[in-house]
Amino acid sequence: MTDQDDAQLKALLKKHYDPVVTEPIPARMYMRRPAWMGYARGFALVAVGILIGLALPYFRPAPPPVAAAQPAATFSMRAARAHLVYAPEVRHPVEVDATQQEHLVKWLSKRLGLDLKVPLLAGEGFELLGGRLLPGPEGPVAQFMYQDSGGKRLTLYVSKPNRADQPAAFRFAQEGPVAVFYWIDRDCGYALSGELDRGTLTRVATAVYKQLEP
Predict the structure, then answer these.
(1) Is 182 buried (19+), middle (13-18) or exposed (0-12) by CB count in 10 A?
(2) Where would I find the beta strands (DSSP E) of the chain?
């Protein structure tokens, strides 16, 4: 190749490729993110996820409050419930009947650890049917049952006071269909229960109270 041919080739190459060589670099090439930016973005996303996870417990709604425990049944309520369970009994209203009254009183006195007395209510129109032993919150409970000529029944509930029971003078309570007169002292609680009008129950309860608390 002669010098003239070489010069012509160089001139031809310059003509074809100079526009490309001298073309300005596109702006998008300047804006291309370096490789480390991708790693940085991934790290930032992980960090945000961790922070959200740590913060979630603080934004969760508080759990509903646990319902407070219901208070124990009151003394008058326990007596009324026992009355409703046993007063309707036809064949087995009592464990020990009135023909064994002495044995009944000694047995229940021993079980309760109290010197029990059985009120006499014949003057009020009620005869003793007998009694039974019941469970109570502070141990055994005695229940004495009476009946009038018309078949109406009364029960006398006798118990050592529960820790939640406050000493109470002669009081009246209505527990559903059952009327209750009761009193609680330091050593013992008594409740006379019956599905009777308040006037009749008041009269009988007064007689019971006078015999047990002379």
Answers:
(1) buried
(2) 96-97, 127-136, 139-147, 153-159, 168-175, 178-184, 189-194
Q: Residue 92 corresponds to which amino acid?
A: H
pLDDT in tens, 71-120: 446 889 999 999 999 999 999 999 999 999 999 999 999 999 999 999 99
> In the chain, where are the structural domains located?
3-59, 75-212
C-alpha–C-alpha distance, residues 102 and 116, integer Å: 11
Q: What is the value of pTM for the model shown? A: 0.66
Q: Name beta bridge partners: 175.
A: 178
Superfamily the domain 75-212 falls into? MucB/RseB, C-terminal domain (3.30.200.100)
